[in-house]
Amino acid sequence: MRASRVPPPAFDVVGDLNVRIEDVVDREDLFEMCRSAQALFGLGVRVYSSEGALLANEGRELSMCGLVNETAAGRAACGATVNRAKSVDPLSSAEVSDGYLARGRALGADHVVHACFTGLAYRIVPLVYETRHVGRIVLGPYAPADMKEAPALLVRTLPTLDRQEANARLLGLPRFEPSALAQIAQHLKTALEVIIFSSHKAYLTSKMHLYSVRESYRTLEEKNERLEEALARLKELDRLKSNFLGTVSHELRTPLTSIIGYSEMLADGIAGPLATEQAEFVDTIHRKGEQLLALIVGLLDLSKLESGTMSLRYAPMQIGPTLKEVVSTLAPGALKKGVEVELALDRTFCELAGDAERLRQVFVNLVDNAVKFTPKGGKVTVTATVRTIEPGALSEVRGTSDVDDIGIVLLAAPHLDQKAVEVTITDTGIGIPPADRAKVFDAFYQVDSSATREHGGTGLGLSIVRRIVEAHHGVVSVQANEPQGTIFVVTLPSAHARRVMPSRVPPAVRP
Question: What is the pLDDT of residue 195?
C-alpha cells in the first residue's frame, strides 16, 4: 500500500512581498555600510528591522553622552531616550506635542528628528520597499547646528550635573546643518533600499529556483510511483502469462504426442497398408505434429526459464563433442537444402562446467537458424576457439561493469589462466539489420513478422538460447557481417574461470 504524502506548502512567488531585511540582506553588508558612513561623516548609524530588532550598529560614544552616563539617573534617562528613538514609526501621521518629535518634511524627506534631553538629536529615516515599511535607519546622536547651550530639560532631568561642563562638551561636538544631514540620511536610505531591492530579487530568484526544483522532484516522485505500480502490474501479468503458457503447453503436449505416435504407426502400416495418397496425408500429419510439438516444447522451456523451475545439471565437459553431434544432426537437412555446414575446432584443451544437453539445445537452435536463413549454395561455419579472458570481460560484454567479478578474478592465482571457449556461427544468408540485432533475443520477436514471411518460427529460440547461455555465466551476441550474413558468438568461461567468479546463476534457472 502506498503511503500518502503531505503536499508541500503553497508558495506564492509573485505575492511574496513580506520582506524582512534580516532575511534578504547579509548582516556583514549592513555593518560594512554603517562603518563606511560613520568613517565618512563622523555620525553614528544604526539599522533596525520593522519589529525594532537591531541589525547593525556603528558609532562612538560622544563626550556629552559619556558625561551623562556617569550617573545612574543619566544612564536611565539616556536609555529611555534611545528606546523611544528606535521605536518611532517615521511613517505614522500622529504628531507628538511634547517637543520631542519634529517632522522633516520641509526638507523633502519623510524622516523625523527625535530630540534628546541633552540637546542632541536623532534623525530617524524609514526604509520602504514596495510601499511596505521594512525597517528604519537611526542617525546620531548628533549636535544640531543651532544649539548654543545645554537645554533646561537637561538641568531638570539631572539637577546635579555640572552645567558649565555640559555646555563645554556640547559646544565642542561637530555640528550638522539640517539640509546636510537630510542629504546624508537620504543617501543612506537610497543606498540601503537599493541593497534591499537587489537582495530581495536574488532572494525571490533563489526561492523560485528551489520551488521549481521541489516541484520537479515531487513530479518525478509521482511518476516513479506510477512507473513502479505499472511495473508491478506488468510483472504480475508476465507471471500469469508464463503460468498460462506452461499449463496450456503441458496440456497440449499429451494429446499431440498421441497424434504423432498414431501417425507413425499408420505410416509403418500397423493398421494395414496405405494407398499413396493416404501415406502422403499421414506424412503431412506427422510433420505438422512434429512442428507443433517443437513449438510446445519451446513454450514449456520458456515458461520454466521465466518461473525458475528449469534445472541444469552441470558436469565437466568439452565443447567439441557437443558441436560435432550438432553438426552431424543438422548436416543431412542442410545438404538437402544445398547449404554446406563446416566445423572447425580448436585443439586446445579447455574444460567447461555445463549442462551438455542444454548447450546442445543452444547450438542446435543457432546452427538450424543459420541453415534456415541461408539460401541454396550458401555456407554455415561453426568455429570453436579457446582464448584468455580479461578480468570483467564477460561483464563488459553484458553491458555492465561488475566490480565484484573484476576483484575476484584479480585475486585468483596468477599462474592459472582464465580461459573461455568462444563458439562462432557464421552464415552467408540474408543477415539481420543493425536496428534489429539488439531485439532478436527478445521472446516472440521476429525480424520479419509479416503474414507473408518466407521462414516460419515462433521467435522463442534465441530468447531461450540467451537464458541458457547466461545460466552458464556466458554471453551470446550478434556481430556485424557486411554486406550479408550473420555472426552469432557464444562465449562460455572455463570451469576454473567460472569457479573464481561470484555465484551469479540467474533466477530463471536452478543448478
Answer: 86
Give the residue among 421, 397, 441, 396 at the shortest CA–CA distance from 498: 421
Which pLDDT tens digit goes with each residue over 74-102?
889 888 888 887 777 776 644 333 333 44
Q: Number of helices (H) and strands (E), helices first, in the chain?
A: 14, 16
Q: What is the CATH number of the domain that holds 286?
A: 1.10.287
The confidence score (pLDDT) of residue 497 equals 72
Write the DSSP string, 402-416: -HHHHHHHHTS-TTS
CATH code, domain with 497 = 3.30.565.10
Identify any residues that bridge with 342 across adjacent strands, giving them in sequence order.
381
Q: What are 404-424's pLDDT values in tens digits?
A: 443 333 334 444 458 899 999
Q: What is the pLDDT of residue 340?
A: 93
Single-letter code of the amino acid located at 196: I
pLDDT at 395: 53
In this structure, are 204 and 323 located in the same domain? no
Q: Grid cell 580448436 — which residue?
A: 346
Residue 307: Cβ-neighbour burial (10 angstroms; 0-12, 13-18, 19+): middle
Half-sphere exposure of 18 (CA within 13 A, CB side): 3
Top pLDDT among 231 and 95 is at 231
For residues 161 and 67, the answer to whether their CB atoms sit within 8 Å is yes
Three cell numbers written together for 25: 540582506
Range of the structural domain that residue 330 is part of: 312-510
Place of cell 527478445: 442
Task: Determine, yes or no, domain membership for 296.
Answer: yes
Residue 218 lies in a domain: no
Say whether both 141 and 63 belong to one domain: yes
For residues 215 and 207, give the distance between their C-alpha atoms in angstroms, rounded to a whole number. 12
Write the CATH number for 26: 3.30.450
13 inside domain: no
Show the cell assigned to 342.
563446416
Q: How confident is the model at residue 457 (pLDDT cuts 50, 70, 90)?
A: low
Q: Are 489 and 469 in contact (CB under 8 A)?
A: no
Q: Indicate the number of domains in the chain.
A: 3
pTM of the model: 0.48
